[in-house]
Amino acid sequence: MNSFIIHGDICYAADKNTLVTRENGYLVCVDGICKGVFGTVPEQYAHLELREYGGMLVIPGMVDLHIHAPQYAYRGLGMDKELLDWLNTYAFPEESKYSNLNYADKAYTIFTDAIKRSATTRLVVFGTLHREATELLMDKLDKSGMVSYVGKVNMDRNSPDNLREVSAAESLADTERFILNTQHKYKNTAPIITPRFTPSCSDELMRGLGELSKKYGVRVQSHLSENPGEVEWVRELCPWAENYGEAYDRFGLFGKPQKTVMAHCVYSDDNEIARMKENGVFIAHCPASNTNVASGIAPMRKYLELDMNLGLGSDVAGGHSESMFTAMVDALQVSRLYWRLVDQSKKPLNVTEVFYLATKGGGAFFGKVGSFEEGYECDVVILNDSLLPHPQGLSLQERLERAIYLGGDVKAMEAKYCRGNVIIRN
Ligand code: GUN
Ligand code: FE
């Protein structure tokens, strides 16, 4: 059922500097795992079903390392504030509605359907602090066939009454319940420990979350060094920490013992960066959000030079769009502004680099994901870019570049596979 061959014009990033292109290539998938890309069908696979996408772009599924499912409801609204005011004015009131399971059901159906129609195959997701609504979100994401980590958010301080857990102990008990309910229940989704960010979580809560992460082997996601006012606040809240990163690391919530993804990292200083590098923390670069709420520009060239673990996040609804094509373009554009306005020694990102970030870079959080090399899980997006017509001849690399800039997912998505399973097919 999920062993087949895809024929088309195939592109993938072998590493951050290497785009592999093969016109009229054959991508072999056996039991959901890539066996490689070939110029002709190898003899031993000749019996497999051929799925014909001749003339179309065949690329790996996109990985969204950071998205807030409950915020999808107000995407594209309320971008007139900075982070902390933005949270209080827009994010927290919306998220408080997810105590109502009817509302959550409606909103999460809309969210899951939208992600299904996008080029995203893998996502790392914030829910809300409501356990039941978050489990409902996991039911829906699991059924979709896309692969996700989903977090019940923790918040026990500096939050409104209707979006705050009553104590660290109750927050921890509910999180343990959440892990027990979900860790072995699903094929395609798993829980991830999700302290919202240091200002929302007491030291006692953080300590307990670190213990749960270790006890159950559960990964971690949060926000880090996104906005100047936020970083200053964390300095006041955790005077014992040398930097914001240590406020997680102290409690075992920073890459060790469990894989961790931190969104933003716009204002990380050299010590914090060194700590991330040493612990293998993944950075989710969220350029749309960093622009919309005027957080700043993350130094991605520096992170690439340091060979950090990197991917892209849509960060809806700080980001206005769930499209990872948009995220790639935003990453390109802000890197050009960074070079022009901030540091001319940091050359802008290029298309190969952002394509790598959106596929294999972020995919590494999930394992062997985001490439078509042998042994990678077979996540595939097929774009019919003839629906984006042009009069001149284009190389395959140019077609990819153009599809990215033109936001190919909405218009031209022909099919999407995750782990070799069909998610959508026109
Ligand atoms: N920091 C804490 N919560 C949030 C959130 O919901 N969005 C963003 N962008 N940053 C955060
Ligand atoms: Fe976020």
Description:
The longest helix has 19 residues, at 324-342. The chain has two domains: 4-60 and 371-425, Urease, subunit C, domain 1 (Roll), CATH 2.30.40; 62-363, Metal-dependent hydrolases (TIM Barrel, Alpha-Beta Barrel). It is globular. α2 (101-117) packs parallel to α3 (131-144) and α11 (324-342) crosses α12 (351-363). With 426 residues, it is an alpha/beta fold. The protein is built from 14 helices and 17 strands. The model has no long low-confidence stretch (mean pLDDT 97). The strands form four sheets. Strands 3-2-1-4-15-16-17 form a seven-stranded mixed β-sheet. Bound molecules: guanine and fe (iii) ion. Fe (iii) ion is lined by residues 66, 68, 223, 263, 315, 318. Residues 68, 83, 87, 91, 196-197, 223, 226, 289, 315, 318 line the site of guanine.
Question: Brief description of this entry?
Answer:
This protein has 426 residues and is of the alpha/beta class. It is built from 14 helices and 17 strands. The protein has two domains: 112 residues, Urease, subunit C, domain 1 (Roll), CATH 2.30.40; 302 residues, TIM Barrel, CATH 3.20.20.140.
Which secondary structure elements does this structure contain, and how are they paired or packed?
Blueprint: E1 4-15, E2 18-30, E3 33-38, E4 49-60, E5 62-68, H1 83-96, H2 101-117, E6 120-126, H3 131-144, E7 147-151, E8 153-154, H4 168-182, E9 189-191, E10 194-195, H5 203-216, E11 220-224, H6 228-237, H7 244-249, E12 260-264, H8 270-279, E13 282-285, H9 287-292, H10 300-305, E14 309-312, H11 324-342, H12 351-363, E15 380-383, H13 396-405, H14 408-412, E16 413-418, E17 421-425
Parallel strand pairs: 1-4, 5-6, 6-7, 7-9, 8-10, 11-12, 12-13, 13-14
Antiparallel strand pairs: 1-2, 2-3, 4-15, 15-16, 16-17
Helix pairs in contact: 2-3, 3-4, 4-5, 11-12
